[in-house]
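Now for one record:
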Amino acid sequence: MRLLCTLLALASLSACNIASTQDSAADEWRGFGNTGAEQHYAAFDQIDAGNVAGLGLAWFADLPQGNSATGPVMADGKLFVTTGHGHVRAFDAVSGEPLWDHDSGARETSKGLQMRLGWGPKGLAYEEGRVFLGTHDGRVIALDAADGSKLWEQREFPAGDMRYINGPVRVFGGKVIIGHGGADFTPLRGYVTAYDLATGKRLWRFYTVPGEEPNSGGTKADALMRDTWPGGWTKPDGSRRGGGGTAWNAFSYDPELDLIYIGVGNGFPYNQAVRSPKGGDNLFLSSIVAVKAGTGEYVWHYQVCPGDQWDCTATQDMSLATLEIGGKPRKVLIQAPKNGFVYVIDRANGKLLSAGQFADKVTWAQRIDLASGRPVENPGLRYHGKPGQFELWPGVRGAHSWLPQSFSPKTGLLYIPVIEGASTIGDAGLDLANLPPALSAGVMMDPDPDLPGARRGFLKAWDPAAQKERWRVAMPGNWPGGVLSTAGGLVFQGRLDGFLVAYDALSGKELWRFAAGAPVVAPPISWRLGGKQYVTVLTGNGAGGGGLFSSENTKLETDYYLPRRVLTFALGGKASLPKRDAAMIRPPLADPGFVPDPALLAKGGRAFAQCMVCHGMQALAAGSGPNLRTSPVILDAKAFRSVVKDGALLPAGMPQFSEIDDATIEAIRHYLRLRAQQYAAEKRSKPN
């Protein structure tokens, strides 16, 4: 390993210091981003630009319907995957033989919001013979990697809480690290928890916004937060007025500094005038926070969006690397968050070293001021009390979502799955003192306006040392998949149109592609066993987001019923996928007796808003949930009520909406029958 690092250092000053900390696991892929550096990089070069054309399918395994946009892990000769709602499966890594499975039962135990927004975890972790899982209903579970039996289980939050776990669990320095989501819908108090790897004992909890319970991060962290919420965070009755700061996705770890880095999310309500009427930076919203791994004690923070009020998060992955800056090697943290800028930060002290705009268009800020570290905001950004709506670039999905970037120590480049899109946002006309529940975020928003230059996706190679783009590849749709880079000079990325593609890491030239028969948006991994290098990825859209806020993605074939599979590749692989059954794509419905009722349509369209997370805006499903415009169940009132209100499909992952009255359920069905009728007409006019 030392020789490899020396050779790579000759090619690039981006050193191997992080990767070399886990020599014993060098052939494996034990965590979401491989190591605590979260580089999504494999230091193997058996598969390279010269022979990648000979890469073939070694084996595949079918998976059930449900979320499969997740990152697998490989250790001890086994491949571990999680799909659906916390269902873990183990396979022999070389043959693909199923070994065991463990169903967490999260579908049956989840409540309300958890089922509707959790989608299931995006990844697992492995360490010391254990596989770790976070379930969206709030449990952290350790499984025996040998047989899948449960070793311990802890509850991260009470059953039925408004929180949910949907990010990958991490294991850093003998500690299991987990956060949660929920800050888009309620002013809860976000936190991150560390558990002992062996016993599950809770070690510390770091709160990301102020509250009454003391922070494991110490009095300094609590004082910092309090001072940046000058009007307080509670209402006169003691209930929370503002909060959020959920850390649901991004964590990194530097074992030499013994620091864990937390990527913190947005505030709620979105509108700062409601959340924090007297302003302030509202720490630690939209911040990177460094804490001591052993105690959770606060060390430093950097806030990417002070006083966030447009869902500007720092929950995107943070890659640790060594870059040459000012003629000297610097140990840095690199993040490309939603707001469109790449940040290079000294990971020992949090000092901003550089920032560059990676999104083609940014309207919320002109630049990042290096002296203060703060954004130079554009006029109109603070939309409270202003007429009209602010054209927000990047939009609410951000220029980079949760799908991971990759940093290659060999090339020194950061490979970012980029979304170019916009939203419009503002609070004109809203009575902010008396907000109904449906508008409790305090804003009016069009998340996907049809504006020039919007609704595009790219893979961009970014030089973080120079803060310059080196190359880009246009993607179909604008939900680009997670990225893997390797020492073989390759970059692997899946696409919504059903291909896994390998690019030359220096030029972006396409070198290889594989037709997977379904969308590929999950991050690929690479590992080695018996001296042979493999690449593994899961197929299937899943995990929401792909079609939630963009009609562009619905133009592609991303149907929910397309196959979910584990695909593993190796040089000389000879396996092949079965021919796809045409019945997987459901045809338009015949409903000749349907007569639209304007009042019912209006009511049903409003009520359907709570369904769009899985089934897409205007039922334009993009694979996260079934395309309801082709579902026969909408033609039968009794069957539709049974599914929606009674939970008939709960075991399959369809949430139960027992609180919705029968009249509203019928209005939703009426709305969907219209959308089915319109879909059939579209297909007749454009049969191909």
